[in-house]
Amino acid sequence: MCSESISLNESSVAHGLLSWLYLITGVHEKALLEGERSIAVAPNSADAHAFYAFSLAFAGEPKKAMSRIESALRLNPFPPSWYFVVSESCTGLLGRYEEAIAA
């Protein structure tokens, strides 16, 4: 059994996942706070930006979310497919339906 542990404050992924958990349970303020913390811990983490974008999009801030997901896509030129789910969700939430369909 491993006796080592990691502080939540040291892990941008932990903050990102916590952000997502708060989001799906409807606690948007905490979701956004954890998303911000994720980026503060690792400002060059594409996943941190993507998790924050996801929270922003579904907390009613799709314009800010689009900026963050674009940052994530710049930081990771070979992103996982869920980045595109966030990106196209933002596009749809912004009312750019034709662009979302084309993508």
SSE blueprint:
Blueprint: H1 12-24, H2 28-41, H3 46-58, H4 62-75, H5 81-93, H6 97-102
Commentary on this structure:
Helix content is 71%, strand content 0%. Helix 1 (12-24) runs antiparallel to helix 2, helix 1 (12-24) packs parallel to helix 3 and helix 3 packs antiparallel against helix 4. With 103 residues, it is mostly helical. It is built from six helices and no strands. It has one domain: Serine Threonine Protein Phosphatase 5, Tetratricopeptide repeat, CATH 1.25.40. It has helices at 12-24, 28-41, 46-58, 62-75, 81-93, 97-102.
Based on the model shown, name its key terms.
single chain; 103 residues; mainly alpha; Serine Threonine Protein Phosphatase 5, Tetratricopeptide repeat; 0% strand; globular; disordered N terminus
Category from helices, strands and their pairing: mainly alpha
Give unreliable regions as ranges.
Answer: 1-5
What is the CATH class? Answer: Mainly Alpha
Count of alpha and pi helical runs: 6
How many extended strands? 0
Q: How many strands, what sense, and barrel or not for the largest sheet?
A: none
Number of structural domains: 1
The CATH level-2 architecture is identified as Alpha Horseshoe
**What share of residues is helical?**
over 70%
Strand content: under 5%
- What do we call the CATH topology? Serine Threonine Protein Phosphatase 5, Tetratricopeptide repeat
Radius of gyration: 14 Å
Order of helices and strands: HHHHHH
Tertiary shape: globular
Oligomeric state of this protein = single chain
Average pLDDT taken over every residue: 89
- CATH superfamily name? Tetratricopeptide repeat domain
